Amino acid sequence: MEEDLFKALADPTRRVILDELTDRSGQSLFEICARLATRHGLAISRQAVSQHLAVLEAAGLVTTRREGRYKFHDLDTRPLEHIVSRWLTPAPPEDTP
Amino acid sequence: MEEDLFKALADPTRRVILDELTDRSGQSLFEICARLATRHGLAISRQAVSQHLAVLEAAGLVTTRREGRYKFHDLDTRPLEHIVSRWLTPAPPEDTP
DNA sequence: ACGATAGGCAAGTAGCCACTTGCCTATCAA
DNA sequence: TTGATAGGCAAGTGGCTACTTGCCTATCGT
């Protein structure tokens, strides 16, 4: 859903998570939490990060794979190409809410 | 401001306005209102559109010029290039809210 | 000058969203 | 099996935001 993509990008914390996954894809929830805290000074609860990841997954920006008790998160930037092409290239309008 | 850009893109009505300005740049507030109604079926008040345009202008996506009692709105897509390059190319992370 | 058109300002409201809190399930190590 | 680790679910709360309403200013045509 196109709507989900823009909603996902609207939050600064989610953008930092994308930065984190750009730096190292395939992190678990706890890894992401730790790196948000240590490298970005973000004091944020595990649930908050979990909810952000769900939003990013709904937007197609993150894919997940389960391995035992771990769940790894991988970045998928393909939806992003798709977004700028809407206005940078002469393309027809899309959603009408 | 980077934050303003993503916030601006988060709203579906604002994205349709960008579509409208992509189709024809330099429209006045009333023109945009009319075309949102006729071409997109959006029953939206003039003030709402005005506020949306202010948000788009704060994001740098729209520039305005006054001529008499008219105020024309022009599209500027440059901030958009800037946004996807953050994750599509190996670039350093940015905002930490 | 007067009415009509184009737009601005400000306050109020309703709905959404990020975040927390509390509890629960599942996997692994000892 | 027990405890610890990794994650999920659900309800509640505070703040932000899109939209409306009402009134005001400025420019143009006649």
Q: Helicity of chain A, in percent? A: 55-70%
Which blocks of ≥5 consecutive residues of chain A have pLDDT under 50?
none
Structural class of chain A, by secondary structure, is alpha+beta
Largest sheet of chain A: 3 strands, antiparallel
Which oligomeric state applies?
homodimer
Q: SSE order of chain A, as H and E?
A: HHEHHEEH
Q: Whole-number average pLDDT of chain A?
A: 91
CATH class of chain A, please? Mainly Alpha
CATH architectural label of chain A: Orthogonal Bundle
Say what the CATH topology of chain A is: Arc Repressor Mutant, subunit A
Into how many domains do the coordinates of chain A divide?
A: 1
* Global geometry of chain A: globular
- Determine the number of helices of chain A (DSSP H or I, runs of at least 4 residues): 5
Strand content of the residues of chain A, in percent?
A: 5-15%
In CATH, the homologous superfamily of chain A goes by the name: Winged helix-like DNA-binding domain superfamily/Winged helix DNA-binding domain
Number of strands of chain A: 3
Strand order of the largest sheet of chain A: 1-3-2
Greatest interface? A-B, 32 and 32 residues
Explain the overall architecture.
The structure is a homodimer of 97-residue chains. The first copy, chain A, has 97 residues and is α+β, with helices and mostly antiparallel strands. Chain A has one domain (2-88): Arc Repressor Mutant, subunit A, CATH 1.10.10. Chain A has helices at 2-9, 12-23, 29-40, 46-58, 78-88, and strands at residues 27-28, 62-67, 70-75. A 3-stranded antiparallel β-sheet of chain A has the order 1-3-2. In chain A, 25% of the residues are buried. The interface between A and B is medium-sized, with 32 and 32 residues. The structure holds a DNA duplex (30 and 30 nucleotides).
